[in-house]
Design a protein that fits this description.
The structure is a homotetramer of 379-residue chains.
Chain A: E1 5-10, H1 17-28, E2 32-38, H2 43-52, H3 64-73, E3 82-85, H4 89-101, E4 105-108, H5 116-129, E5 133-135, H6 143-153, E6 160-168, H7 173-176, H8 179-184, H9 190-193, H10 198-214, E7 218-226, E8 237-244, E9 249-255, E10 264-271, E11 275-279, E12 286-289, E13 295-298, H11 307-310, H12 323-338, H13 351-369, E14 375-376
Parallel strand pairs in A: 1-2, 1-3, 3-4, 4-5, 6-9
Antiparallel strand pairs in A: 6-10, 7-8, 7-14, 8-9, 10-11, 11-12, 12-13
Helix pairs in contact in A: 1-12, 4-5, 5-13, 10-13
Amino acid sequence: MSRKIKLGILGGGGDSLIGVLHRVAANMFDKYEIVGGVFNPNFKENIEFAKTLGLNSSRIYEDYESLIEEESKLNSSEKMQVISVLTPNFLHYPMAKKLLENNFHVICEKPLTTTYKEAIELQQIQKEKNAVFAVTHTYTGYPMVRQMTKMISDGIIGDIQKVDAQYLQGWLNPIIHDKNKRSSTWRLDPEKSGSSCCLGDIGTHAFNMVELVTGMKVDKLLADLNTLYEDNQMDVDANILIRFSNNAKGTIRSSQIATGEENNIRINVYGSKGALKWEQENPNYLYQLSDDRPLQVLKPGHSYNSKISLDGTKLPPGHPEGIFDAMGNIYKGVARAINNETYDKAEFPAIEDGVRGMDFIEKALDSNSKGNVWVELNK
Amino acid sequence: MSRKIKLGILGGGGDSLIGVLHRVAANMFDKYEIVGGVFNPNFKENIEFAKTLGLNSSRIYEDYESLIEEESKLNSSEKMQVISVLTPNFLHYPMAKKLLENNFHVICEKPLTTTYKEAIELQQIQKEKNAVFAVTHTYTGYPMVRQMTKMISDGIIGDIQKVDAQYLQGWLNPIIHDKNKRSSTWRLDPEKSGSSCCLGDIGTHAFNMVELVTGMKVDKLLADLNTLYEDNQMDVDANILIRFSNNAKGTIRSSQIATGEENNIRINVYGSKGALKWEQENPNYLYQLSDDRPLQVLKPGHSYNSKISLDGTKLPPGHPEGIFDAMGNIYKGVARAINNETYDKAEFPAIEDGVRGMDFIEKALDSNSKGNVWVELNK
Amino acid sequence: MSRKIKLGILGGGGDSLIGVLHRVAANMFDKYEIVGGVFNPNFKENIEFAKTLGLNSSRIYEDYESLIEEESKLNSSEKMQVISVLTPNFLHYPMAKKLLENNFHVICEKPLTTTYKEAIELQQIQKEKNAVFAVTHTYTGYPMVRQMTKMISDGIIGDIQKVDAQYLQGWLNPIIHDKNKRSSTWRLDPEKSGSSCCLGDIGTHAFNMVELVTGMKVDKLLADLNTLYEDNQMDVDANILIRFSNNAKGTIRSSQIATGEENNIRINVYGSKGALKWEQENPNYLYQLSDDRPLQVLKPGHSYNSKISLDGTKLPPGHPEGIFDAMGNIYKGVARAINNETYDKAEFPAIEDGVRGMDFIEKALDSNSKGNVWVELNK
Amino acid sequence: MSRKIKLGILGGGGDSLIGVLHRVAANMFDKYEIVGGVFNPNFKENIEFAKTLGLNSSRIYEDYESLIEEESKLNSSEKMQVISVLTPNFLHYPMAKKLLENNFHVICEKPLTTTYKEAIELQQIQKEKNAVFAVTHTYTGYPMVRQMTKMISDGIIGDIQKVDAQYLQGWLNPIIHDKNKRSSTWRLDPEKSGSSCCLGDIGTHAFNMVELVTGMKVDKLLADLNTLYEDNQMDVDANILIRFSNNAKGTIRSSQIATGEENNIRINVYGSKGALKWEQENPNYLYQLSDDRPLQVLKPGHSYNSKISLDGTKLPPGHPEGIFDAMGNIYKGVARAINNETYDKAEFPAIEDGVRGMDFIEKALDSNSKGNVWVELNK
């Protein structure tokens, strides 16, 4: 019953942080076996890196095309079933496309692609192939985000009337004020990084979180972006008004020049019967507010949590869970999908979330370039 | 040297909470003697209330006109020098106007008036009379707000590049969803409450805080207001984009339907060299962030604080200060101004802050009604 | 009905911090009128100081004996009814004794006296005279301490099984390591400060808090005191084991060499059905724990609070209350007692609390000097 | 260079939580390959469980004796190098003993043994064999505990003068008050659980933490234990006074009847130049206090941290680390030791820490049974 899923990885070699995160997550619930991949564009370094992981070199490939070709020859019990795509953003599209076309499942880092058009195209192939396709908005994997999502969908806080979301970082501050640095940072180079810096890198996480936990779609947005310096073309700060199809309104604020901030994601959702608040840097607390009762603070692992929240907690209450646990939970959900087990769609963000994210980025850029006007998202 | 300042009060009788706040503040530093006033429109209740304060009835008046007339007859050592105006908003203008014209100093609750035009008119008279005129944006009186203001003006965080401010309450939530209640609440009745509910009541506090602590003027704004129900005319929620004359951008978010929130004011200011964050419900902590050093948490009363911050702290560190201390500090500053002692303009918000606040309210309403467009504030 | 209570004050002149605290508290609810006293041992400075308070000099006296003599001659509607004793510790006993003997009510700073014997003597006179006698353990006046006390007495947390209390300060740290400083600080001089430094100054607060909130008496204790240096005779740090008559056990830890701590009082009470936790530096939060429900955080002013808690809150939820509010609430309770109105004994610590405090200090010193053995407190 | 270390596991099968923790930790840095073990006493379940881990059954054994026998036959490149012992406490000693005698390295759960005598015996064999032997006091693996330890050893807070440590849980509360439950819980059965419940299970963690971070040895202790009910023989709550060889004093408080507490470990260390505070449930914050500067809050991953702290952080600041990271860091250190690489002894608790822990337990029981007297720990 429990043969492990064969996992291949594209990217994530060398000092890659995202590589560590995905490998630990894959191992966390004993559901995957990493069998090979292309960790590095340089084949020699690729092989060296694979050794440090304890992999033999037989399934380490020169490039993703060879991987697809060779793996496709293997019988189904040996073949890689799912590939994690951790490469630079512009490679997500061609890799994911070819993987889907060749019947692999895909776990893809965000942003899904570099354009909405590409995203839609991928989604179409994914549907045809009926492939499992996860987009790793990691933060959605925390047990208390899942609890928040479930409580809202259960109507605990009533109809949503206000949403306040942020993703604030400060890491660009030491770069942005130095002309040389800002002109030589790849994140600020449209050639390398695509049309957006802040929105693409982190705004899209906040947007995904908003739609995930509320269970509602953002109808339209009005964005005010900041490049801070005239010689910088890329957004480094974004203040965005959002509206939902009911009367709810809100904001998404994301920034990479919020000096001193690390990874400060917060989401507050206010409803007619109560409110829920969560923040990523202290992920094991979910705050429930109401008109007339004391503030309640929910924590992971307690029996008052929902099944999907408890599913992501391995130790008794009081043992802090971190970012690895969040990603581990996503991999666990993907494993269920691949194994055709029952799972809740809230267990991992899927390709439609990736598509929405691309639409968000393009519409926010559009709103800003048109002078901060309302732009509707696609239905 | 230390004769106490003679203080009269208009409003604040009965169960008025604001009345308690002003009286405690006036007594806090032994600078004022409350000698009389018009606490209540009903003269009998007025007299009764004055007794509970231990005042004899000789200087309790029928109305503010009588107060002005009678007090003006007294010699200067007896006469009320300053009058606190705590009446409903629409009375601020006529009362303050007549008080100024008759050479009284004024301490006025916010919002200063019901229209920008009235505010400008008051300001003109105040200038002619060279009167002391304070507008009680109470929260500015906290020692750590003063410290934040001073640190920013001293350049500690460098050039400001991002401002994120909020004032979130939830008290309207139990009212707004009930058609009867929402049609019978005076705050939601434009006849009684003026053109704005949320902006006028609390948005203006957040706006004042933004301009106070940054030392910068908001250049223009773009506001998205929410009335939640079609049969409600008044704003109960506001998401506002702001821009300053340098490249700094930001938001002011204020709400009275942020379910479960009490008095959640936060202001984060991000600069090129660091950031400062403060929140009203835990007012004795000021958070200083930087690119590469540990977070620092400043608290009142320590010698590392500036003079103007320390001036507002009476006990050693670790003795929590509350809202009464904040208002007490404002009254202390006003006393210095009345006594022609040296004072720092940051010691109390003055009439120009009240004028700015009225402009902010009108421009935000204007932006919203025009479909969420940028509107410039007056210089 | 509402004639204000005539209040006299002994001590608290000049730069005295405790003087500010008592005066603001007396004024907070409009229940007292400060009519005079002896603020300062130097009569000239005494008069000067009285002027800064706006008092005329007719009831400013040379010493407390004169005050008692002269005030006793006044008719009952004029005479000071209650005297606040804010002088150095060794003066509490003679002053309070003579005041009681001459039919004044007394509000006395802690510690009540310098010996248990004196305390018992005062208590006897107080009983004979049926005087109101408050001992200002200020921290008991916070609304959430009152709420905690009431919830425990209502059985909300069941039978108490564990108590963990602390009062940690660090102010002696910069003094204790310097031989000259430690030999010249009055707090460390037994001639001036009595037999104890840390226990008398702050340990007694923690002990009082323990007995107040639990509603139980400490049966016996075992104390380990630290003087840190051999040439220092006075306790600067205390770790004390405590036991109650049921099977509950606990600790009281108090220190003045907990480097960097300000006024860190915490009390945690664990019962069979739940637990309650409170800390002085964030006094507006009361934490309620249970086996299987989310943590609840209670805040002042909400209708879920008990009457005695709400009685001490003047503004709506979200307006932070500080140390002045705590003392103000104590003065309010004392006013009720003096005016023969109904009051709850939890509204202010009385002479029996002062007596218990003296017993605690002496028994802790005794336990320590005997080599850390169990010593029973008096019943 | 990077061949993975062959790891065997004893225990941790089925629903074991500790099993998950060790497996994830072993995988975290790609240093280990789990090759087999005895997960479960029932061989069939053992095999089943191994399958769920993706292990083939060739190196799944009937019992630890068979494992030792069979593995010893393998050549050195195949043989298990290190065995993790996760079985019930009473099995630690016989298993570890035989493993050491047969030249395996050992990673052992705490408490090391059931008696001090056994611990000493193990230590002797470990020395003879020069084996790597880790005792998994997991909490010591957090980056900020390592940072705290390093800062203290670097003299940042000067000479230590006070230590305040706690480990509070509430899980026994729903059991202890029910006579049937308390007589049928294995933790409260001396036959199954050894001489101590609370001390052995969690007190020893707090004790280890105290000695680790201070770098000092506890000289003597005085313990007051609570069994709460007469028909319960086992300690469920402990208040312990401790003294060090310098003049520092302190407490260790541990409890399993601190109702509602989860895993509330705190350690505060006060020195002549500053203080450091840490708590396990919010493990990514280290608080540095001083006499006259703002509180500083250190977080993982920043360049201001020491090398040994940074070694345990894989992602940029703001990505919360949890309990898995702490155990992962311990396994990483053990891997270095096994591979004869340079490592810092603070990277993992070793057998001498386990020995100290057993001495602590026995001495605390001794102190209590003798009527709460001082008992010296072995040097």
